[in-house]
Write a structure and sequence with these properties.
Helix content: under 10%
Number of helices: 0
Shape: globular
Number of strands: 5
Strand content: over 45%
CATH topology: OB fold (Dihydrolipoamide Acetyltransferase, E2P)
Length: 80
């Protein structure tokens, strides 16, 4: 059986750390009673080995083994 890895798409909001970027991932939810759609955003720290991605880039991140206390994702590629 093949291991399923979770991927997310988001925008980099910070690249000030060495080999780490902060990626903001937006998702839409629907209110159960009022049926209004609203946006929920979450920030994830992701590993960027060569410091090649910068603020404003849209990237895909993949879940990986824990690399530090709160870094569990790795940047896979830049999306145009």
């Amino acid at each position: 059986m093949e291991k399923v890895t979770r991927t997310k798409v988001g925008v980099i909001v910070s690249d000030k750390m060495d080999k780490t970027v902060v990626v903001k991932v937006d998702s839409s939810k629907r209110h159960p009673k009022y049926k209004k759609t609203y946006t929920v955003s979450r920030k994830f720290k992701a590993h960027d080995e060569k410091n090649e991605y910068h603020t404003g880039d849209k990237v895909e991140i993949r879940e990986s083994k824990p690399l530090s206390k709160d870094k569990n994702f790795t940047v896979v590629r830049k999306i145009d």
